[in-house]
UniProtKB/TrEMBL annotation:
This is Protein-S-isoprenylcysteine O-methyltransferase. It comes from Euplotes crassus. It is an enzyme of class 2 (transferase). It is a multi-pass membrane protein. It catalyses: [protein]-C-terminal S-[(2E,6E)-farnesyl]-L-cysteine + S-adenosyl-L-methionine = [protein]-C-terminal S-[(2E,6E)-farnesyl]-L-cysteine methyl ester + S-adenosyl-L-homocysteine. GO terms for cellular component: endoplasmic reticulum membrane. Its EC number is 2.1.1.100. One of its GO terms (molecular function) is protein C-terminal S-isoprenylcysteine carboxyl O-methyltransferase activity. Keywords: Endoplasmic reticulum, Membrane, Methyltransferase, S-adenosyl-L-methionine, Transferase, Transmembrane, Transmembrane helix.
Length: 182
């Protein structure tokens, strides 16, 4: 397979991957620092892993459809608002109500939220990599001839494991960083 990729596409891809890589680097820094910013580090690590896994899935199973939106960073205004509000809430509480982020109960929320985040990642990734080309990021209005109903793997006990995994991941990230509003 010989695929021609423009220089502009290569440049944008490098920018996206560099940004996500730097996000992981910063996240590890937040996680390792003393104090309670480790929650923010865990959140940023989880967020970066989510976007990289989405891109990896498209790269492996829908290569002809790959584009920068495959990272799912630009999911829409609602996603952008939710992520922005999540960061704003975290920093507001960190600065003005530090007790919300640093007490004995907080650690329990971090552990429970972290476990649920991992389970959410598992369901989402399992759904994508089990269904392979039958799973897409776009709603289909007509059945493709190549489409088949997947009933094995994670689909044997959940009809929509991708949606379930994303829902569990998104809610659990807020539990993990103890954001009571989000």
């Amino acid at each position: 397979m010989n695929i021609v990729v423009s220089d502009k596409t290569k440049e944008m891809l490098v920018q996206y991957l560099t940004t996500l890589g730097l996000s992981i680097f910063a996240a590890v820094g937040f996680y390792l620092q003393s104090g309670n910013m480790y929650q923010l580090g865990l959140f940023m690590i989880s967020l970066s892993i989510y976007h990289l896994l989405e891109y990896l899935f498209v790269l492996l199973h829908h290569f002809k459809d790959i584009k920068f939106d495959s990272f799912l960073i630009n999911q829409g205004k609602h996603y952008t608002f939710a992520m922005t509000f999540s960061f704003c809430e975290y920093f507001y509480e960190y600065m003005f109500y530090p007790g919300l982020k640093d007490n004995s109960a907080t650690f329990l929320f971090v552990i429970i939220g972290g476990i649920l985040v991992i389970i959410g990642h598992f369901f989402r990734a399992s759904a994508e990599f089990t269904a392979k080309s039958n799973f897409t990021h776009h709603i289909s209005y007509r059945k493709k001839q190549t489409h088949e109903l997947i009933t094995h793997g994670v689909y044997s006990f959940s009809r929509h494991p991708g949606y379930f995994g994303w829902f569990l991941w998104s809610v659990s990230t807020q539990i993990m960083i103890t954001n009571p509003v989000c």
